[in-house]
């Protein structure tokens, strides 16, 4: 009986009740917002709290002028939602937008302008930037056009991987930059399809989670310009300026010119999952591409400016993002918008999590003040659809709000640990007064995350923003002249050291020191508790020639040079083996912070600290040497001990080793002072250390030992 009733309802809803501009229409369904395919037509639904009239504008695909404009009858409005079902449309051949008319009594905070055609903020696809770098038509009356899409992708049973956070190794990459260089050898460089061809490389490296820099639709020509000195075209390459929050970037799809970017991205996720690799999206909900008072009107500004943006009492835009505007994220309307978007990507695209750019903004109220209990952050933490998704906060913003360790977390959020980055960088370059802080970072930053566990700390030394690893050991200062901003952009506090020469050099000793320093960084990162994140290309020492803010370059400067895979095999082998070593030892991945006790009564604490003498660490400000031993007997499935010594002094030191239980011996896994291939072993095949009582740790080098039972001969 229920099926019969349902069929009758569908039939009734499929029947037009009147005509508008020659099209058969009927009152629409208010939810869901956006354009939805329904029986016989398309349901259009749009929200505006103050509009007095809304017109649906239809284009034939690619045509400069509208084919029809359909005023939505006032009687079709329910509350502040204007909805209408239009029948007999060419679903695949149309693009659509809206004209929104403001009230007769104008509020100075509103920016209604019916001469502008507005994009649908819920559009599942956009046209207008279908192919990367194709010069746009500046005279286009509607540059970012909303499109209809079909839900017919075959997922073949794909499901989120749900890899435990303790086991993750994250790899941050730029979709275009990763395969755009001709050296990538892929059939479709710079695309989702091209990235699929590099999955075997990532699997062999050992990472099991990729964090993709923004893939929501954006305009690479936003603020595009020619560098007067070099003649180079500069772009919005990174994409931290969203146009369409529900739409994958068409210019990243080999099939984008055919409107198939959604299927291509879904296929990318499916193939990553087949390889056991999760997909996390870097998302930008702190601001939009509409900019400040002088920016373009794309959607939110013309729909409901005072609802979607934080405004000063004078009606200007608060700028906590540093890019001109700030989304009013804790308005109930915007909060629901953000949640709907995240649910959509989790359910429709099967993504495994999200990293939130400038996430401190998401905790600000409409007046910009930080909220004690931000509704949006709480809602995300407990949302039933997002239960399995990683939620990672960049816990600061451009307005000076720094919340690393204090971000409202609800025992659910993780954070990019900026304090980890700064401490490890200072230690590697040999700064004084860092040893105690370093020890805290190595065991998962309990000073910041004791109440919620070590996996709340996303440990990183480099990311897209700032020096990459090779430049961190090759430059004392940033060199951003190619950005055309007179080297005034980018951070100045890089905590870097050039090892004796600024930039490229032929000095073999400096080159050896740089390689050793990069290995030291990877040793610390991959033996620290918490979740490690590696920047794409660091494993093969990719350089940006000292540019620490390469946001505007679509060139060899930002592209992955795949020739480095062969040229820097030594570094690649070291990193790959370090990842495998981490996976082999659960004591390095424990979710709970160690406390120096012996919870299982095995005679060894879960973590212990050592110096020149075993069990006697040097915590003085002048100390540049620390050794840490993790006791695997406290962890199920790990009977080994792991000993990590880091010496940032410019002199060698002889270290006394702590004794092991009877029947166990120290084995040498890594020594960054040794020449390859003796610098790192294959996990499980480490040679027994000749001297079980002590080891020499070279100047500015690290040693990793594993204590385990000697295998029968």
From TrEMBL:
CDD domains per the record? AmyAc_Glg_debranch, E_set_GDE_N
Q: Where is the Glycosyl hydrolase family 13 catalytic domain?
A: 140-582
In Swiss-Prot or TrEMBL terms, this protein is called Glycogen debranching protein GlgX
What are the top taxonomic ranks of the organism?
A: Bacteria, Bacillati, Actinomycetota, Actinomycetes, Micromonosporales
Species assigned in the record: Actinoplanes sandaracinus
Q: Output the SMART domains linked to this UniProt entry.
A: Aamy
For this UniProt record, give its keywords in alphabetical order, as a comma-separated list. Glycosidase, Hydrolase, Transit peptide
Keyword Transit peptide set for record: yes
Q: Which NCBIfam families has this protein been placed in?
A: glgX_debranch
Q: Which gene encodes it?
A: glgX
């Amino acid at each position: 009986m229920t099926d019969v009733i349902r069929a009758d309802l569908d039939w009734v809803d499929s029947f037009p009740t009147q005509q508008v501009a020659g099209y058969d229409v009927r009152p629409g369904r208010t939810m869901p917002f956006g354009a939805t395919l329904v029986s016989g037509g398309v349901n259009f639904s749009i929200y505006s709290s103050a509009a007095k009239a809304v017109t649906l504008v239809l284009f034939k695909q690619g045509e400069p002028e509208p084919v029809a404009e359909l005023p939505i009858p006032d009687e079709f409005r329910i509350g502040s939602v204007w909805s209408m079902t239009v029948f007999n449309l060419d679903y695949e051949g149309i693009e659509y937008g809206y004209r929104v008319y403001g009230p007769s009594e104008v509020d100075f905070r509103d920016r209604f302008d019916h001469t502008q055609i507005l994009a649908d903020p819920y559009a599942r696809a956009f046209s207008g930037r279908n192919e990367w770098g194709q010069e746009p038509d500046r005279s286009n009356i509607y540059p970012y056009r909303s499109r209809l899409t079909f839900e017919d992708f075959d997922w073949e049973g794909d499901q989120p991987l749900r890899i435990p956070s303790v086991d993750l190794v994250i790899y941050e990459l730029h979709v275009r930059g990763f395969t755009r260089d001709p050296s990538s050898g892929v059939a479709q460089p710079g695309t989702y399809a091209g990235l699929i061809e590099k999955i075997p490389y990532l699997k062999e490296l050992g990472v099991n989670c990729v964090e993709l820099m923004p893939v929501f639709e954006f305009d690479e020509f936003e603020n595009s310009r020619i560098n007067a000195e070099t003649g180079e075209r500069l772009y919005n390459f990174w994409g931290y300026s969203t146009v369409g929050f529900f739409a994958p970037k068409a210019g990243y799809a080999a099939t984008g010119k055919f409107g198939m970017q959604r299927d291509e991205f879904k296929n990318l996720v499916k193939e990553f999952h087949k390889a056991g690799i999760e997909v996390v999206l870097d998302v930008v909900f702190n601001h939009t591409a509409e900019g400040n008072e002088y920016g373009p009107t794309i959607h939110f500004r013309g729909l409901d400016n005072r609802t979607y943006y934080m405004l000063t009492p004078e009606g200007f835009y608060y700028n906590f993002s540093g890019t001109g505007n700030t989304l009013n994220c804790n308005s109930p309307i915007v909060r629901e918008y953000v949640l709907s978007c995240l649910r959509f990507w989790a359910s429709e695209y099967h993504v495994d999590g999200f990293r939130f750019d400038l996430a401190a903004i998401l905790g600000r109220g409409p007046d910009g003040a930080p909220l004690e209990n931000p509704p949006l952050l709480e809602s995300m933490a407990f949302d039933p659809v997002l239960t399995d998704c990683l939620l990672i906060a960049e816990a600061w913003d451009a307005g000076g709000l720094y919340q690393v360790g204090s971000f409202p977390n609800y025992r659910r959020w993780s954070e990019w640990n900026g304090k980890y980055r700064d401490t490890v960088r200072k230690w590697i370059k040999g700064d004084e007064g860092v040893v105690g802080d370093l020890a805290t970072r190595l065991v998962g930053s309990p000073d910041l995350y004791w109440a919620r566990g070590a996996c709340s700390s996303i440990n990183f030394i480099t990311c897209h923003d700032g020096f990459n690893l090779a430049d961190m050991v090759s430059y004392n200062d940033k060199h951003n002249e190619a950005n055309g901003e007179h080297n005034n952009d980018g951070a100045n506090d890089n905590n870097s050291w050039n090892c004796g020469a600024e930039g490229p050099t032929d000095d073999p000793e400096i080159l050896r020191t740089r390689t050793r320093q990069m290995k030291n960084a990877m040793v610390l990162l991959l033996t620290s508790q918490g979740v490690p994140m590696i920047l794409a290309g660091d494993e093969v020492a990719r350089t940006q020639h000292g540019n620490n803010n390469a946001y505007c370059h679509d060139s060899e400067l930002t592209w992955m040079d795949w020739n480095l895979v062969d040229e820097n095999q030594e570094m690649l082998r070291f990193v790959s083996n370090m990842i495998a070593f981490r996976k082999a030892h659960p004591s390095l991945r424990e979710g709970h912070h160690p406390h120096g006790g012996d919870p299982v009564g095995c005679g060894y604490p879960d973590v212990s600290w050592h110096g020149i003498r075993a069990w006697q660490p040097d915590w003085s400000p002048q100390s540049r040497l620390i050794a840490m031993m993790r006791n695997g007997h406290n962890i199920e499935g790990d009977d080994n001990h792991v000993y990590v010594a880091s010496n940032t002094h410019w002199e060698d030191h002889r270290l006394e080793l702590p004794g092991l239980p009877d029947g166990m011996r120290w084995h040498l896994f890594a020594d960054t002072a040794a020449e390859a291939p003796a610098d790192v072993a294959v996990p499980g095949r480490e040679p027994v250390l000749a001297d079980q009582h002590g080891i020499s740790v070279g100047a500015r080098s690290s040693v990793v030992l594993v204590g385990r039972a000697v295998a029968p001969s």
